[in-house]
Structure formats: structure tokens, C-alpha cells
Amino acid sequence: MAERVLLTHSYFYKYDQKQWKMHQPFPPLMTITAAALLRENGFEVGLFDVGLKNSPEEIQQHLESFAPDFLVLVDDGFNYLTKMCLTTMRSAAFRMQEYGRRYGARVITASSDATDHYEKYLDHGADVVIRGEPEMTLLELLKHGDTFEEQPGIAYRAGKKTILNQPRPIMTVLDELPLPAWDLVDINSYRKEWSRGRQPFYLNIATTRGCPYKCNWCAKPIYGNRYNSRSPTYVVDEIELHLKHHQVEHFWMCDDIFGLKPGWVEAFGEELEARQLKIRYKIQSRADLLLKENTIDNLVKSGLDEVWIGAESGSQKILDDMEKGTTLHQIETASKMLKAKGVKVGFFIQYGYLGETMNDIKKTLHLIKRLMPDRLGISVSYPLPGTGFYNKVMKDADTKHNWVDSSDLDMMFSNTYSPIFYRTLHRYTHLIYHIQKGRNTIWSLLTHPVFPDLSMIKSVAKAVIYLPLCLYKWVAIQYLSRSPITDHEE
User: Fold this and answer.
1) What are the tens digits of pLDDT across the range 126-140?
2) Are 81 and 107 spatial neighbours (Cβ–Cβ below 8 Å)?
3) From the CA atom positions of the chain, what is the Rg in Å?
4) Considering only CA atoms, which of 322, 318, 347, 317 is closest in space to residue 335?
5) Strand partners, 45
6) What is the dihedral of CA 145, 101, 223, 375, to 10 degrees?
7) Which of 223, 228, 420, 484 is deepest in the core (most CB within 10 A)?
8) What are the φ and ψ backbone dihedral angles of 24, each rounded to 5 degrees?
9) How far apart are CA 469 and CA 392, in angstroms?
10) C-beta separation of 284 from 255 below 8 A
């Protein structure tokens, strides 16, 4: 009789109100990839997808009805929010581990947080923690679970002693993995959430693993600095499955960097065209990569709809300190070229990098107002374990080492200004952005008169409504900026 494995993960969207209010949840891609691999190898597999669930306690009925031999938590390493190791999700993972033990299952956990803090997970019910890329290590563990000492890539306890085995090499041939077990996911429940937000429904697809760039604040606990790609043919196989069975034509390519391998995007577009498939998709990329010959044209031809660029700062000094490897000129050039092709541009902005001054902040605000991306994501520097940035700043940190949820925005290390300054700046930037958008709309109507549509009316209305609050926030920023702090206090 095949052993029974119940897979789950720990990202509860309802525990992260900022994300929940956006109505853009994604299924746990890495979790269902692991499920597909186990099922292909003869294990009986079930899924408790916590994405839209209310609490970890709901797993109990699944443990009772499915009666698994193993409870396996595999967090979705393609979801950047899991790299931040939010404490609400960590607590949820601990509770599910403990329920698994209570119902007689052996517990295995794999996540960025567990990789960095394996002792905590072993203390709260895990029999084994997988450190790094999970799928092959998990398969070997379940096949040979009584010989832990021979399995690379894990941490476990022998008596009271914690044992760390040697790392497992990163996978290089990603087509060896089966397509994710999408049949285990309630696709319609995710579709309904996107519908509540009045947006086209997107599903997530990963075409690569890893990132070769060396930004000193960006953690890579799972894949390191290696960059490996699935073949365009295999990716299009998955897309075709979604078009046929789930009626989905919008996709979030959740790679850290999409289309880095020379010739990949062109081959991807050719494969879509050969099968007469039409899709729209959005990606994350770098300004310098987008400017390589024919890259934007090939992306647009294959269905690109939106690009998120890690702009980070309007100060070249800060970009250089981050070891980002991009320039302000590249950001501006790429943004203008994309918009000229009808592609929406999103900027990731990061405030609070070590040594940032008001002059750097003003440059960032100027960059945003001048280039006016279609989307704007703002955060503050978050020290991720395993990075040079973390090692530099966390030696002075207080007891807080993780955000509670993605709206926390606490500055967890001593910096130029106080945490409340950066929270105020975060809100002020959004206000300035919407006011500028309204001003641009008014100018457009004056220079090219048309009957305004609803989006134009909303844009102008927001600008008028936000103006008094924006002035108030600016006064607060000026006041808070006059009192730089050296200690982490609010």
C-alpha cells in the first residue's frame, strides 16, 4: 500500500490583510510541483491549500480524514512574500506541524524561513527540515526515510543534538520535474477572489529558478546565485493546459528574472505562435536586461502586458551601495521604450537603505514623478538572512527580526531616520504619485480635449481629495527628518 502524504504550506492570505485586500491570491506553485513529483513516484498525495483558509486549525479535519503517514509543509519559494519570513505565517506553520505530530504523522518542512531558522521548526514539531530546494530532497527522504544521515540538504535531531547534513546540489535540468499538480487546486476559488477585485484572473507560472545578480540585500536561500531555465516547449505545455482546462489566458511569470537566457524569449514566442496560442503576461525584470537587443520586441510579440522593474531608488549612490548593477539612465530608457510599445510599467521602490539621506529620498520622489510608472510598489529595506546587508545591519538590531505581515514596514535596524518617518514617507509617496497622476490627466484633457471616462474622473478626484493629506504628510516628514536617530526607536 502506497504511503500517504498530505502537503500544505504556511501562507494564509487572510493573515496578511494588505495582500488579502488586493484580491490577487496565487496558488502555492512549489507545493503542487512537489505533490506532482511524489505522485509520479507512487505516493498517495493530498493537498491542504491554506491560501484562502481561515486558520491552521482547519488542517485537523484533513489529518483525520486523510490519515497521512507524512505531513509535508512546502512553502512556495516563487512567492516573494515567503522569503520575508512573516511571523504570522511562521506561527501558523508551527501550529500545523504540532497538529501533524498529534495525529501521528511524521513532519517534514521546507521553506526559506525554515532554511534560515531550522532550530525553531525542529523545536515546534518538525522531524526534518529541508534546507534549500525541496523536491528531490523530499522524494529521497520519503523513499529512504530511516537513513537521515545519508540524505543531503536536511537538518534533524539525533537525541538532543541537531545535525546539519551537507547541502544538496541545485537542480540544473528543470524539465525533469513534472508539471505542477494543478488538479489538486480549487482554481475557481482563486478566480472568485480576483473577480471580487474586478480584475482579470491571473495564474502563476515559473520558467526559471535562481538569479545570477548580486544585489547585496536580496536573499537566495533556496537557489543561490545559479540560474536555470525550463525549456520554452515545456512552459508552453503548461500554458496550453491552463488555456484548455482552466480558461485562463493571463499569467504572472513569477521568476526573479524573466527571460535572461539568450534566445529564450524568442523561442518562447515562436512556440506560442506555432501552437496558435494567445496570452497576456506580466514579469519581473531588470532595466539593463530589457535594453539588450530585441528583448522588448520579443517580449511584446509573445504577449507581454506588464513589467515590474526593481528601480529601488532615484539615487545612483544608493543603487551602487546596493550593488544593484543598474543605472538611472537604464531605468528611464527601459521605462520609456516599454510604454511606447503599450506595456505597463511597475516600479519596486525601496526606502531606508543604509546611509540614505533626504537628498536621496528627494531624488527617488523626482524619479517617480518624472517617469510615472503605471504601478508602484513601495517598501523599506528588509534585512533578509544570508545577505551581506543582513550581516552588516542586524548586529545592532533589537529583538525584532521579522515583520508580522507585509504591511508592517518596521525598520528593524538603526538608520538615519525613525521607523515612523519611513511609514509616513511610504504613505506620502503614494499620495504624491496619485496627485501627479491626476495632474497629468488634467493636462491631457486640456491639451487633447475628450469626454473624460470613469478612470480619468477618478484620477482627478483622487488628486483633489489627497492634496490636503499630502501637505500634512509633507510637514510631518520635514519635522521627523530634523531629528535623525541612532537607536532603533519610535
Assistant:
1) 999 999 899 999 999
2) no
3) 23
4) 347
5) 5
6) 150
7) 223
8) -130, 55
9) 36
10) yes
Pairing state between β 128-130 and 70-74: unpaired
SS3 163: strand
Exposure string of 322-350, with b = 16+ CB inside 10 Å and e = fewer, is: bebebebebbeebbebbeeeebebbbbbb
pLDDT digits (tens, 9 = 90+) for 19-50: 899 999 999 999 999 999 999 999 999 999 99
Contact 287, 347 (CB under 8 A): no
pLDDT tens string 232-251: 999 999 999 999 999 999 99
Do residues 430 and 408 lie in contact, with contact meaning Cβ atoms separated by under 8 Å? no
Read off the C-alpha cell for 68: 497521512
For 68-85, letters b (16+ CB in 10 Å) and e give bbbbbbbbbbbbebbbbb
pTM: 0.90
Residue entry with cell 495632474: 439
Cell of 188: 475557481
- Helical axes 135-143 vs 29-40, angle rounded to 10°: 40
Question: Contact at 8 Å (CB) between 351 and 362?
Answer: no
**What cell does 328 get?**
538611472
Report yes or no: 5 and 46 within 8 Å, Cβ to Cβ.
yes
Cα(376)–Cα(308) distance, integer angstroms: 9
